[in-house]
Amino acid sequence: MKVLIIEDEPAAARRLQKLLTDFDEKIEILEQLDGIESSLIWLSERHNPKPDLIFMDIHLSDGSCFEIFKLIKIDSPIIFITAYDQYALDAFKVNAIDYLLKPIKEQDLQNALQKFEKFRPGGVLNYESLAKAIRQEQDNFQKRFLIRLGQSIKVVEIADVAYFYTQDKISFLATKSGKRYPVDYSLEKLEELSDPKKFFRINRQFIVNIEAISEMYAYSKSRVKLKLDPPTDSDTIVSTERSPHFKKWLSGDDDSKFEN
After folding, report:
1. CB-based contacts of 192: which residues, under 8 Å, 6+ apart?
2. pTM exceeds 0.90
């Protein structure tokens, strides 16, 4: 059996590996990963073998493991690991092979592996529903984007995004450091995924982060022209119909989100 371990605590990962090999010396540990980004990269590499089983810690070094399921499809069955018991554990029983509470006990691991052995081959687990059921401490807004550039993969945190824009019918994000990457979402979808307290759709071409606005100028018909950082060659002018909502948004009005 080929096993992938996603666990950010080295001591916990070593203990899990020992318990697994003690249970069955034929178990092969493919890799031990410690975060969302490293997991996305490993799981996206076509030359890596498909795990028969994944052990996945919920709280990783760079966020919740459920962010992974937003960015990539995982077909392998998963046994989740958590140090907290306040989650909706019934959801685990319905949608996952099993869950293990830290510190992992030998008997609990054996029971989980026996449960895995009984799992119907080809069975489908609804991890998306599971994520929704137990994501108690997170909101529904996007936290990061998986960027594919040829054979390489990069993860960009939403906090690092200055603005989104379209060019030649392709959506891009611009980071605060000035780098630009294509994203596989329409501007309409990006508007839904972005926190409306921080991002605003100023026109058909741009969604801007309030932190990226360096200067504002009065423009014709009560419109506002923005100077963004990093700069862009395109005109960033708030459209006429969006200008009243934009001004409310600047003031922190919760009802300022523009409705199409």
Report:
1. none
2. no
